[in-house]
Specification:
By secondary structure, the chain is mainly alpha-helical. It is built from five helices and no strands.
């Protein structure tokens, strides 16, 4: 009869430990989801603040042809949208094979592409090909 009591106590303690482990995992999952949501909210806010603003051109009322033409030409001269820095010409992929690792690192630095100081020439070539 004592063996039955011991078995019941062991099983009860195992169930208690397992339920505690499940509760702990649930608590960790809830914390992780809260952190991911706050990170997503911060990232969305950062992206929204850095989005380029759209410039709306004012509507021109038509009164006479001469006035409308003058106004439209003035409005066109005032509104200038710059999309970004001018793109530099990228050397042909075949030309990149002939360059040294130092020259490839210079090209990557000019483009603002991160690379490791100890990256071999093949890795540098793959980075340049991927961004071309």
């Amino acid at each position: 009869m004592e063996l039955t009591y011991v078995t019941i106590v062991v099983l009860a303690s195992m169930i208690f430990v397992l339920s505690g482990m499940v509760g702990y995992l649930y608590w960790q999952q809830t914390r992780m989801l809260q952190h991911i949501q706050s990170l997503a909210l911060a990232l969305a806010t950062h992206i929204e603040n850095n989005r380029p603003q759209i410039i709306e051109q004012p509507q021109v009322e038509e009164e006479s042809e001469d006035e409308v033409d003058d106004r439209v030409s003035v409005v066109k001269e005032q509104v200038e949208v710059v999309e970004g820095p001018p793109k530099e010409e990228v050397p042909d992929v075949d030309d990149l094979q002939d360059k040294t690792s130092a020259q490839l690192r210079e090209l990557l630095t000019k483009k603002g592409i991160p690379f490791g100081k100890r990256d071999p020439k093949t890795v540098l070539l793959q980075l340049l090909k991927a961004t071309a």
